[in-house]
Amino acid sequence: MELPLDYETLRLIWWMLLGVLLIGFALTDGYDLGVATLMPFIGKTDEERRMVINSIAPTWEGHQVWFILGGGAIFAAWPFVYAVSFSGFYLAMFLVLSALILRPVAFKYRSKHADARWRARWDWALFVGGAVPALVFGVAVGNVLVGAPFRLDSDLRSFYEGSLLGLFTPFTLLSGILSVAMVVLHGAGWLAVKIEPGPVMDRARKFASYAAIIATLLFAICGLMVAYGDMGFRIVGQLDPNGPSNPLFVETVRAPGAWLENYGKYGWMVIAPLLGFAGPMLALFAMRRRKHSLFLAGSSAATIGIISTVGLSMFPFILPSSLDPQSSLTVWNASSSHLTLFIMLVVTLIFLPIVLAYTAWVFKILFGRVTIDDVRTNPDFY
Predict the structure, then answer these.
(1) pTM (global) more than 0.85
(2) Which of 22, 141, 206, 221 has a Cα-to-Cα distance from 355 of 20 to 30 A?
(3) How far is the CA of 146 from the CAs of 161, 178, 186, 217, 284, in angstroms?
């Protein structure tokens, strides 16, 4: 059966869709993680902390859709990537899931008992549920840039030879801290448009100022480490974008500095790192001028720019191998079949607009600032 789109085009479309899903998760659940990370520090009283919690409480569960869609897309469109990453990074993912599980438990149990120490424990549980996933996600991205320690045998069976502690290196830890700074800035941007002006917002602005500066500096430092460190991979020899999904068919080698080569080939890609630098500065400018919507726009731009920079720099690689570069997984050699990608695209074109429309409707219905008076008088609030 001849399909209306060729294999190369479908692979590119799914690479872009995967990026859209990851950015969608970072933009929505990213501010949830940032707000949870900030909450113990910007809320000095129980009412202030409840106001912060209720700024994200109505929508945070819906944001998990993007996380599930991202995992599902990797499973269905890039089975090699799913097999290697979900098995090799199992302990790291277990750490993330354990932290994420704390969030719904903390939301539900925090207000069940009117005791200051009880509520303080659950407040710190929310902090862990926000900061730990953000840190580990950043560390994971750092490890993807460095390359994961796995190899494929002649039967395409994967063997991961790393450890949990091995994931934490100076570069990956800086990537993790950059991720935390990014979500803290984005969380403060959300609070700027979602809670009433006052002491809590002022404290959030203070932390956001630090986060914007840290994010900008670490983005630059990590960029220099990528440019001049032992990072980068390159495909050598003839490549067939319509060829079979077999990583062993085309030679891949380690090539320090290769992550910058795409910017020479495709000049438009420089928009991503520029956005990564401009976003935090725009947020910093907007927060000092008290332009709340522009503040959120700046933090969103920073998130999009930083994540896009990684994906565009690595293209066509998705998960390179530091142990055996020949086993590296790319857009061209790790995808599902032509027919599978086409059927998934049709399903996505039907259901993704529904998800977007529902999300937009929810935000419209729940639009408005949360105030201290709301916390005091609304029995449905946490």
Answers:
(1) yes
(2) 141
(3) 15, 16, 26, 20, 31
List % helix, strand, coil for the chain (3-state, nearest 5): 75, 5, 20
Identify whether 272 is part of a domain.
no
| Cα dihedral sign, 43-45-49-51 | negative
Instruction: Say whether pLDDT at 93 is over 80.
Output: yes
> How does residue 186 score in pLDDT terms, banded at 50, 70 and 90?
very high
Beta bridge partners of 236: 251
pLDDT digits (tens, 9 = 90+) for 268-295: 999 999 999 999 999 999 998 889 999 9
In 3D space, the residue among 308, 219, 233 whose CA is nearest the CA of residue 268 turns out to be 308
Does residue 265 fall inside a structural domain? no
- Number of other CB atoms surrounding residue 368 within 10 Å: 9
Which residues, listed in sequence order, are joined to residue 329 by a DSSP beta bridge? 319
What was the pLDDT predicted at 1?
58
Of 251, 227, 228, the closest CA to residue 330 belongs to 251
CA angle, 293 then 297 then 299, to 5°? 120
Q: Which of 119, 125, 2, 130 is nearest to 50 (CA)?
A: 119
Name which of 137, 154, 24 is nearest 89 in CA terms. Answer: 137
Element (H, E) at 71: helix 60-77
Q: Show the tokens assigned to 1.
A: 């059966």
State the total domains in the chain.
1
* 293 within some domain: no
Largest CA distance in the chain: 68
CA atoms within 13 A on the CB side of 262: 21
Report pLDDT digits (tens) over 322-354.
888 888 999 998 889 899 999 999 998 998 888
Query: What residues make up the domain containing 185?
Result: 7-230+337-377
